[in-house]
């Protein structure tokens, strides 16, 4: 029986090639979009699910409150980990480790006295011990967790890193080999572990024993201090069964208060929270490790986009199938006359839908690699699409085929199988059906399609507008024609950076040079607690810090509102504060803040100037209180303002070549890398740019599928009104009049969709813009452009069929048969 259904389905679909192609294309678009989004969402939601008892693993994070403002840090004080091991019960594991974020030069000695093999700019280093390997659950190829990091200067490598450093040796043969880090830290390889194949944020490649940090040369300044918190000092804990996170959080706070020496009149508060392992990949407030984080609302929005595109494909199929029903009416009548039951006909039509859906699914599988390649900037590098290695994809596609088949095929099957044989054999199947419930249902489905499409169009316009606003807004500093780079962090000779600075100043293509710690807007931020006493009360605030020479303000175009500029100094002698900090201190007139003292690091620092506010980071975040000072030893960033381009556009290229030459003269063994400041500002909004690309892609698909649905409805209508069109032409109606008559109802549907879509789009836009502290307006012209664009596209779609129907020979239109 099923073979018979399938044979008839193949013949029917082959007979109507254009109808079949349009249906397959519409469904394939929806399915391929759903498949790509499934891959992306599944990738992110499967992070760190492989660890044993992962629901009991937490990261300890710190929260500080100053003057009503909360500041979050993913790290803890360095002594916290050892203290918890000794004093806190209810924990199965306490795992402190320390990250090493800087790029590192790795040197591997070679036998026979040859020069070592050097690997520059290596990343993903961490100082860890036995507990880290046991908690995450690494598989050992050589060595063991118990001994591999027990002593100082021991190193464990992942399999991929071991093959990079020792390509000709097996894992066991690498044990005992030496590795140098930055030519100063000499370690011995004591273990090789397999790379984690599952999705994880713990993508570290090289592990140095944590006890190495206790050596004289590497010991951090905050190693034994309870006052300093750094994100480099990480702490994972595993709760014992039955232990509540609240109990552990209280215990951690008690230990902190036991050892932390609170200052008198300390107006800040510190709270420790347990962040679930499953939350690390999605929480941007605390950050992750080496992998880009995901945003759950964005992922849920993508799922909604996939559902909408799939729904559009199904609606499109329904419209086209019912529009094509007139050509199958006699077939249905004959089948019923010959004894076919309605149930058999339903199975027949569902078989056709299943065949179409399977064909669309195969096409979507072929399209998916191309789509993933097109969105390489948004798709994670390690996201895979392999049907043989990912059985979950096959299960997803099978479920999708079943759902789409039922959604798309059930209603048309019910409608087609319900025709009465007597009527269809008399060509009366459509008599008096123009205003029936099914006609209104088709129109409702078309309106729904255009509501979704118009919301996408308006959303895409708004997202592009906000990105343009963010990049082009005056953020309080100059950003064009400025590049910067950092000098060698491990260079102990301070004079080298000044030698390089003077060499760059002498380059004619360079307008100005400044030595600082980082640009005005940067992901790298320094902050510290500062106090101000006005005689009546004390104001304590967490304040961001920037350090530079006297050219810093001039080069970046910062506006000095009052006072004088800073002067280059090896120690901090004065501060320039921003408007926000001045207002917090109670000075609404900038001039009145000049000369006041701020207590910082147990000394009084006078305010020498007030600078206009500027955005220290992206427009997502508010402007924070900030000071600018001069502290020579911390300033290893060289910022360079270039001269304007000449008529040939070669000024900047020449300048960069000369700067690189100067760099090589000072640091001959170091590669020269630099960044343009305006490019860094644009990177703040990469996520939004990716969203804009996806939304533009989804919008194009939604509009295309909606137009296919509209085409289906206009085909249905023109078939119904064929004789009416013929009569009107005989009575003198022009082609324009007939086209207008047919199109009017459809344009009204699009306008109705606009009325529904506009408020829905406004709500979505408003909610999305709340992610930005500084945001653009929801302009009225967004809705006008969105609505007008859809009307224009609808008219183009309608003209294809309406003009064809209007130009038909009336003699053919008025034939009985």
Automatic annotation (TrEMBL):
Main location (coarse class): membrane
UniProt keyword terms in alphabetical order: Cell membrane, Membrane, Transmembrane, Transmembrane helix
UniProt-annotated location(s): Cell membrane
Pfam families hit by this protein: FtsX, MacB_PCD
Sequence ranges assigned to domain MacB-like periplasmic core in this UniProt record: 20-252
Keyword Ligase in annotation: no
Keyword set includes Nuclease: no
Membrane topology, record value: Multi-pass membrane protein
GO MF, one example: transmembrane transporter activity
GO cellular component labels: plasma membrane
All copies of domain ABC3 transporter permease C-terminal, residue ranges: 304-419, 700-810
Bilayer-spanning residue ranges: 21-41, 299-320, 345-372, 392-416, 445-463, 694-719, 746-766, 778-798
Protein name per the record: FtsX-like permease family protein
